[in-house]
Specification:
By secondary structure, the chain is an alpha/beta fold. The protein folds into 2 domains: 38-137 and 178-241 and 413-497, 3-Layer(aba) Sandwich (Rossmann fold); 156-177 and 243-406, no CATH class. Helices cover 43% and strands 13% of the residues. The protein has 20 helices and 12 strands. It has helices at residues 2-23, 33-36, 48-52, 107-111, 117-122, 156-174, 178-182, 186-199, 212-223, 244-267, 269-272, 278-294, 311-317, 325-339, 346-353, 360-370, 377-387, 395-398, 436-445, 469-481; strands spanning 43-44, 56-63, 73-81, 91-96, 123-128, 205-210, 228-234, 297-299, 304-306, 424-428, 450-454, 489-491. The strands form 2 sheets. Strands 1-2-3-5-4-6-7-10-11-12 form a 10-stranded mixed sheet, sandwiched between helices. It has a two-stranded antiparallel ribbon with strand order 8-9. α9 (212-223) links the parallel β6 and β7 (228-234). The protein is globular.
Amino acid sequence: MPTRWFRWLVSMMGIVLVAGFAAGPAHARDPLDRFYQQRPDWQPCHDGTLDAAGASCAGVLVPLNYSHPDGRTLTIAISRIAATDPARRRGVLLSNPGGPGGAGLQTMVTVQKGMTPDVRAQYDLIGMDPRGIGRSDAVHCAIPLPTMLFSSGFDVFGYARDTGLAAVLAASCLAGDIDKLRNITTRNTARDMDVIRAALGVEQISYYGASYGTYLGAVYTQMFPSRTDRMVLDSAVDPDRYWVGMYQDMGPINEYALDDWAAWAARHDDQYHFGATPQQVRAFVEDMIRRAAAHPVISLGSGYLVDEHTVPIMLLALLSNPKMNAGLADVVRLLSDGVDGKPLDVSKLKSKISGAAPEAAGMAAVTCGDRAAPRNPAWYYRNIEAARPTQPVFGAFANNITVCAYWPDPLEPATQVHNATPALILAVVHDTRTAYPEGVALHRDLSASRLVTLADTRIHGSFRPGLSPCVNDSVNTYLATGALPATDVTCEPDPEFFPK
């Protein structure tokens, strides 16, 4: 009898052990589960703009490197402006303001101004500081330059200066937390968006992205096609030309924009005294840049430099919206007086162009981490020289070398965007940041998309109050009902939007 019991006990133990080993892999823990199963702890934002909008803020934990989810983590800061009618709430609308490197916690405070009450009733509006930016574990470089973008100047000596500066800036960034820096990429931010989606308790996300944010949104549709709902991509980027080609495309359109502004300034010659014709105004600006090269202004207290490398960037910053025409005229006058030896009011100058470009560290991390740039300095200089005849002000910027020429190769290949995810793409014929052909190209890449073209307009970002009721109606109808236009649409701006 004891022998039979012993044999039975041994056989049962064997069955249990075999069953245990057989079942083990089916219950193995997914290392990403702890990220996907978290829930936000909403708290006050302690930010005047967000608090005034009734927003709340939270942090969402994500892996630094999704290939090693049990390793280091980052905390992504998000904001929420709740749907105005909880009974009609259908989901969340994430957002990105552009950049790359733009902080986005406050984005929906502005974007919601173009939304109808019907749309506001249906969505929680979600802002986000992308990884490595703002409150989301921001990256830093040892040299805190305000931008990684410069114009190369007028000759090979000026270009040599920028080549050296790019190398030094790259070294100053890479000397820090290189593991963190190299994981600040668009693909990882798209993965973060999917963790945020799960943390918010929804199966799909809707999205509004502007400028670089359209590239991020397009990458998300490629990586997580079943998780996308209603996608609005405003001032779209061509994924195949991101990012070197995208900057090259900015040269010709900003020359056009400068001429357009010059025509406005000529009409106000009694106030600004740049010239009575557009040609005289442009000549004044080009001469001012040459004078800045001969007599640069260095503000030791603020570290501000006014010369042929920085002036074109200041001009470009204010050409993206005709409502800034007067501000650009003020900047041209400040710069012209400064290079003529008059005292330069640096604080006033900075106030006019503040927020014009994302901080250098975050921008460098994303652009250089997404796609490798050409390494050979001669390649850039050939392009600069080829552009000069037709792009005398902006060709040396649009084709210039950057820190990415000295950056390590990306950890992952760039995403190839080609899918049939529905999306509403907005593109502006005279967009100074993302040239119109870029939006047309993204429309081809997203084969189920519709393209809304804003004609006859020099502006970056077309979904905004008062600019074009046609554009706003297309966006609001899509977000409210899910219905894309039956065909591509061309809209006109409201003439009352623009300064005379």
